[in-house]
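yo

u said u wanted the structure for the complex thing, so here. seqs first:
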Amino acid sequence: MEKDSQGDIWEVFIQAKPGMPHKHAGNVHAMDKEMALQNARDLYTRRGEGTSIWTVRSSEIVASNPKDDEAFFDPSDDKIYRQASFYSVPKDAKQI
Amino acid sequence: MELREALYKYLLRIGDTSLIAGQRLAEWVSEGPTLEEDIALTNISLDLFGQARAALSYAAEVQGKGATEDSLTYLRSEREYYNTLLSELPNGNFANTIANQFLNDAYLYHFYTALGKSKDEKLAAFAIKSVKEVRYHLRHTGEWVVRLGDGTEESKNKMQSAIDDVWMFTGDLFEMDEVDETLIEMGIGVDLNEIKRSWDTTVNKVLERATITRPEDGYMQTGRLDGQHTEYLGHILSELQYLQRAHPGAEW
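structre next:
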């Protein structure tokens, strides 16, 4: 993508409560780490959305390529036995 | 000096500084250098308006003459405003805004920290709530001072000139009169000489990181205590108060 004067794009992850996973919230422009953190704070946590923020330069994220979708994801389509819900729980099993 | 009168004036000084700084920052809406910074400055402006509301409604209550936060905001004239001169200075370029706000934020941060120990419970509660917001404002503007000062040759020059230009208004922050003396004696107010020492430490630390030279203290323009302002406050008020002046008593 063409470089503009707004800085790099950083992805923002917000943790709603301590112990919960950080979830992708969106992204911000920023020129350095501190600015990324502050911009994320100002854009994504003004209404009590979270207790922790992670940001990372978008260019540092390794993403799968849509061309690989078949090879990556289709093989699992017909293997529902990989889901825990595929198995019925024995009647007498109490500690599951 | 009578306590009620002193506390009323003290609250106006606090509320007016937040109100005018907030109004100034609001001028950046849609003009920010980036979308994110536009929102950041507006968020800070909104925090300041919140502080102004709390301080001015308490001022109205202390005065006890039927005033409200709105009447104090919309119906006082320029000479009845007691904000810091720093908060009314024009935004100029982005570095000017950052310089003005940073020096004001550093002052408010230490002021509210100390005011949190006030014997006036309501004032202390207000300060403890506000200092959380101001700590973030200071971090935001402080980081910009460093980023611009320790940035490119052009940004450094702009940051240095901005600090140089505004320096003569910093003495105004620490002036005291019988209002302060009355309240300090009662454990309600804050000794601004002590705030000056903390302010110096904070400002020096940031300027050093920013490779910005701290200007020598020369002539200081003051006026906050007596409501003597720069030429700029009148223009701010004419915009801020326009509706109530043109249509007295208008409500929505």
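The two ends of chain B are 39 Å apart (CA to CA). Residues 25 and 45 of chain B are 6 Å apart (CA to CA).
cya
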